[in-house]
Amino acid sequence: MWCRARLIAQAYSPTTFDFRLRGSDPKVTALAWRGSGAATTAIYHHIININTLRTIVQNPQYKQLVDLYLDNNSIPSVKELEGSEWFSKFRVLSLRGNMLRQIPVYAFDKAFQSNHNIVGVYLGNNPWRCDCHYTPRFQNLLLKYKRIIRDLPDIKCSRSDQETSMVQISTMLLSTVCKSGPVMPISTINIVNITLASLILIILGRFLYDWHSFKTTGKLPWLSSILP
Questions:
Q1: Where are its TM segments located (predicted)?
Q2: Are residues 114 and 18 located together in one domain of the fold?
């Protein structure tokens, strides 16, 4: 089913868009794009209840897609982007207001380096993971590509994180999530090892002293003189 409609879409002047209604797919109830047929170049309006990018990224119909706006859906992962042809040539990617906790930092770094068509990436209003393992790498990506990632103030730690709730990741101190652990007391086994090492050094030192004394004076060590 096809129809023509006039819309105003995110920073674009009123223009004509084609709609295809997909009632057979419960995850993709409506798509709005510029162009028609195989020449789809931009999806502007969010796809209701979508939770994966596979349908779009791997669909030949969207081979020419360059602008993708999937704000306010339920997408928990973008692993489908890694290694995809689309990720190497896209222009705009907006994933604001989804369920993302982390992204493959290496894949995004590689794509940003090789793709010279990128105009903007939007990742704000997601419940981002904040810990010492992930945050340093993610923060480095955000700062490295701050001219590409356009909504840094909205990229914050998950509200559920007690110590970092809603903290802006690009400006947070890494010491907030990478705290030094408590100083561990010396264990019993280490005390035993230190004691044994000290005794060995004392015995070795005494032996060397007695050996030197015997060589110079001919006098037997004190211990040998009292033994029967």
A1: 188-209
A2: yes
